[in-house]
Amino acid sequence: MKGLKYSQTIVICIVFLLAGLNAAIAQQRKGLLWEISGNGLKQPAYLFGTVHVYDTTLYALPQLPAGLVDKIDKVYFEMDYSKIDQAELMASILIKDSAQYLNKLLDTGAIASLKKLSASSPMLKMMGNQIYAVKPFILMSWISAGGTKAATVDFELFKMMVAQQKPVGGLETVKEQMAAVDAVPLSKQADMLAKALDGRFSLEQQVSRVTEVYTRQELDNLMTVLNDNIPVDASFDDAIRLNRNVTMADKIAAILRTEHPLIAVGAGHFGNNDGLIALLEKKGYSLKSVPVLIRKVRE
């Protein structure tokens, strides 16, 4: 489980970044859990929005409605965490050309900021000097997902399903997710990382802000908070959000032909007219928000 946890932590950070782009908000949608019906379904399936950094000192983990797990036959995550090859994953996040390492792309001020943040981030500290060989987008996600109190709703749900011997699967592979990252040149990624480092934001404050908005179940506002300190280039939106939403919607529709699962992906994929909710509706499905209880731990 230790190796799985390590691989999963890296994957969660990647997913956190890939879910973090915003689009023009045409309609505000609220709700983390959506019942999928219609379009020939004999029984409902469910879509659940997760978040990849979550402050459990402020709120308890979201509670799915009683009996819901008994109604489904499988759970799909963005990736199947039980089938992640750690060696393949590590290789995919590293820069292959040493001439493109970050200590050669970033200025001295950005490098100093990165070293300072590394001291407060377990993930960055663990990398040591190899941090300069990590792709800038991945570092941006690690920075934003840093802090010792950050839990991941995805992995907590995954562990619960494994404990209940529920079959699990994934909508994407590591290779597919990393292809989105690689769509942007390293020099442009480095520029965005430098801007993020210049923000001098607090890791703990970022986690707390994301948690607060997530618990209000405001899908579009969550994207605004994610973007506050992650200046992702808008031209990358097609590759890492829009195209992935379309692909995931197609895969979900294919799954629904034979299964009635719970599909748990980042809530950042839900909102707007190009999110999963709207795309599944365009395919003929009906989606209805189902209340989810999130208990506050302290004021």
Automatic annotation (TrEMBL):
CDD domains: Tiki. InterPro entries: TraB/PrgY/GumN_fam (IPR002816), YbaP-like (IPR047111). It holds the Pfam family TraB_PrgY_gumN. It comes from the Bacteria. This is TraB/GumN family protein. It comes from Chitinophaga sancti.
